């Protein structure tokens, strides 16, 4: 137990949060996709992934690579920072 607290203190000193306080990558892909009248399949085809991958990303079950995030932003004609955001994960 003492070892755990030592790690928490060291991570805090380095500016990192302990695991139970991690942030989760969320997105507005589904909202933006529907507003443009684009199906998951059409978005998937535009960025070169399977349509199920788009669903996983939309639901937050999968975090895209940085390259894929930018490809999705380009396909949705929206800046990447308007699509993705960090939120605290519920404990």
Task: Report what the structure shows.
The protein is mainly α. The chain has a single domain (23-88), classed as 434 Repressor (Amino-terminal Domain) (Orthogonal Bundle). The chain has helices spanning 2-13, 29-35, 40-47, 51-58, 66-75, and strands at residues 23-27, 84-88. α3 crosses α4 (51-58). It is globular, with a radius of gyration of 17 Å.
| First-residue to last-residue Cα separation | 20 Å
Q: Give the helix level as a range of percent.
A: 40-55%
The CATH C-level class name: Mainly Alpha
Helix/strand/pairing class, anyone? mainly alpha
Radius of gyration: 17 Å
**Mind telling me which CATH architecture this is?**
Orthogonal Bundle
Report the average pLDDT across residues: 83
**How many domains is the backbone divided into?**
1
Q: SSE order, as H and E?
A: HEHHHHE
Q: Which residues sit in consecutive blocks of at least 5 with pLDDT less than 50? A: 8-14
Shape: globular
CATH topology name, in short, is: 434 Repressor (Amino-terminal Domain)
Query: Can you tell me the CATH superfamily?
Result: lambda repressor-like DNA-binding domains
Number of strands: 2
